Amino acid sequence: MKILVAPNSMKGSLNAFEFSKAIENGFRKVSLVFNVRCLPIADGGDFTGPILYEALNAKIYTENVLDPLGRNIDASFGISGKKAIIEMASASGIRLLKSEELNPELATTYGTGQLINKAMEHGCSKILLGLGGSATVDGGIGMLDAIGFRFFDKAGTRLPGIPLSLGEVERIEYPSDYNPKIEWVILCDVNNPITGENGASRIFGPQKGADSDMVERLEERMYHWVGLLEKISGRSIANVEGMGAAGGISSGLVALLGAELTPGASAVFDLIGLDKQLEWADLVVTGEGKIDLQSLSLKGPVALAQRAKKKGKPVIALSGSYEGGEYGDFDAVFTVVNGPVSLPHAIDCAYKMTFDTAVNIAGLLLKTNPIIFKIHENFQAVKGYLDAGDFEKSQNSAEQMPESQSLYWYAQGLILQKRQQWGSALNAFIRSLEIDPGLTQAVTNISIIREILNFTNPALLDP
Known about the structure:
five-stranded parallel sheet; elongated; six-stranded mixed sheet; 44% helix; 18 helices
C-alpha cells in the first residue's frame, strides 16, 4: 500500500520534516508492506523557506539583519538560479520575540527588506516571499524602507519606516536605484483583507500583542496607508484576498511594484511536484498543529485534500487539536492528543504522540485490508522460516507476494543473503529500494553485504 505523507508544520513543536518522519516511522513500525514517501508541505507561512530550499536545491545564505524590534540577528534565505526564496518570519517573525516583547506598534518588517536587498545583490530577478508567522502589523513600510523607499508627511518631513508613520505618510518616493524588472511571487497562507473586521489589525493584531485600544489605532493608521497606496497606484487593494497576511506586508509591493498575491499552498505544491506524488499514492496522510475554521481558507492540509480529492485519493489528517463538526475534504481527522494534557506536555511529546497515532491508523488499515494483510503475513512467514533455517518454505512464502511489491524483493534479498549468495542478494535489495526508496532495512543490508564483499570478493562490487 502506497502512503504519501505530506503534512504542514505543527507550529510550536514539530516542523514539517519531523512531522513527516513521525508518521512514516509509525507506519513502518506496523509493517513494511506500507511503502511510504514523505513530501512535507507549506502554504506560505512558517517553514515555507526550508521546504522550498530542499525542493529547489537552493543554496542557503545567512545574513546579519534587524529583528522586528531592531536588534541584530542572523536570518537565512535561499537562492536557486535567479530565484530567491525568502521566508519573512526568519527576519520578522513572532517566534523571534518573547511574549512580553510583542508590540505591533513597534515591530517592523525592516529585516525582511534587508534580506530582499541581499538577494538582489546576488543577482536574483525573482523573489519568492513566504508570508505568515509575522510579529508585525506595519503594512510592509519597514520592508519598503529597507529597500530604499522614502516616506514624507504633509509638511514634507521625512518619516521613519515604522508602524506609527502609517497614518502620517502623504508622499512616497521610489528608490533611485531600484530594478523594476524584479518579479515578485507573494505566497499567502490566509485570505484575509488588509482592513475591516477580518483584516490584519483586528484579526491578527491581538495575536501579536495588541490590546483593544491598540487594535483600533492600528486599524486607523492602516486605513490611511491603504488609501494612500490606492491613490498612488490607481488600483484597489482594500478588499484583495490575502492582503492582510503578515500584517499587510505585501500592500506596498502590490501597489508600488506591481506584485501579485498567490495562494501559498498552491504555489508550493507546484514547486515541490505534489501532483506527481498524488498520482502514485493510494492514501494521503497530512496534518498540522490545529485544524479549525481558519484551516478551511488557504491552509496547506485543506488545499492538499482538495487536490487529492480531484484525483480520487483518500486523505487522513492528523492534528494537535481539531475544532469543527465537518471534515471538509478530509476523509478522517485524528487528534494526536488522546487525553487531557498540558500544552507544554503536548509540545514536548508531539513526536511520540504523532508516532503512536500513526501506529494505530496503520494497524487499522492493515487489519481491514485483506490483500495487504496477506502480504504482511507472507513476509512474517519468510522471516520465521529463515530463522528456522528452512529455505524452501521461506522461498514458497516469498513467492506468494506480488513482484510489484518492494517487500517481495526485500524478502528475496533476505533469503539470498542467508544463503550467502551476495551478488544476487545485493541486486534484490537494490530492486526493493527502487520501489520503496525509504526502506531503510534494505539500505542497511546493502551496506552489510558491501562490507563483506569488500573483504572477501571485491570483484563482485565492480559493475
